[in-house]
Known about the structure:
By secondary structure, the protein is an alpha+beta fold. It has one domain: Outer membrane efflux proteins (OEP) (Up-down Bundle). It has nine helices and six strands; from the N terminus they run H-E-H-H-E-E-H-H-E-H-H-E-E-H-H. The protein has a four-stranded antiparallel sheet with strand order 2-3-5-6, with no helix packed on it. A two-stranded parallel sheet has the order 1-4. Strand 2 (65-74) and strand 3 (81-94) form a beta hairpin. Helix 3 packs antiparallel against helix 4 (98-164) and helix 8 (300-366) packs antiparallel against helix 9 (372-407). The longest helix is centred in the first third of the chain and has 67 residues, at 98-164. The two termini are 18 Å apart. Mean pLDDT is 88; it is low at 13-20.
Amino acid sequence: MHRSFLVAMLVLLADFAGAQTNIWFDWNACVAAALAGNPDLVAAGLDVDGAAVDVDKANSGRLPQVKASGSARTSDSSDGETYSAGVSASQLIYDMGRSGGEVDRARVGELAARADLESVSADVRYQLRTAYVKALKAQRLTDLSAEILKRREDSTRLIRLRYEAGREHRGSLLTAEAKEAEARLEQLQAARSQELAYRELAVVMGMTRAQRFRVKGDVAAPALPTVAPDVEALAAQTPAARRQSLARDSAELALDVTRAGRGPTVQASAEAGRSGPWPPDEDSWSAGIGLSMPIFEGGGRSAAIRRAGLDLEAVDARTGQDFRRLVETLRQRWVDYQNSVERAGIREKYREATTERAKIAEAQYSGGLLLFDNWIIIENEFVEAEKALVNAQADAMQAEAAWALALGRTLDEKD
């Protein structure tokens, strides 16, 4: 928390002062900033605090209740003005477990709020990772577009010299100039995309003025786990699965509490006071135990019990289906993760091949051993392979983030 606050303050100060030096954020710094400043996380944390207060509120009904009272009355009788003051106390003795059930429901609600907080944290982690990868990708593509532009400029110079020497036709020169113009436009577009990516990342981290920061890290495909995961076991450990289980517990407790409403309530009470003309001097006191039990409520209680039972059955029906969906989501995310990492590996091989071909083709074209039409095809394949590799590696990183989201990994968990 302290680290994220310092990082955020440095960004704000740099922006306010118009500093030109960039502040660099690695993944851990982004996580620290999001933990401190993301509004969704802050709100979910407050929901947990509110659920804890609900537990105290529910438990208060089982504690002694004490009240003070006082009055002053005037009448035309001989008594004139009379005053009274007193203190009364009551204590619940027995209510067939109804108050205890309400406390248990509140505690389940607190656990559910904590599970919701974990789900929100997992979602924010996914948003943060997505924005972070997008920023890394934008930085890499910006650098790559500059490299490609320089390569296109060198190609245009070479072809212009050959054209002026009469060894190349005008169509080749115009093609090279068009490729150079395209590379210049792509560089401009990459710079715009990079700025947008930084702003998106700043929003997820909860920052309002964070234009002058950059991100540290590499765009690289992650390594797959060596052992295939047990998706059903992992699904049972997710916040979503715990939330499903807690929903059933809450519905079951609601049914128990509603049934307990049919039973008797036993309560002890005591009262002491003083009344009379000023100053009042007539003492009085009373103590006793009261019992109450509903006999006829127009069928409302029976209807409430039936409704609570139906709610429990509905939760049971949904829980099984929701868990199956959760398992299938995990399975799909795992397959997507595998496929993306493997595609990135193939793109790496294509990049190696096109790089080697481009070196050979450039030497052959410079020596007059290769026609322009063949050389430009090889050059285009090299450029496209470079961009495709960056995109494939970023896709693999995004697939890993989606897998982590399905697992319910929170921002607090270390990579």
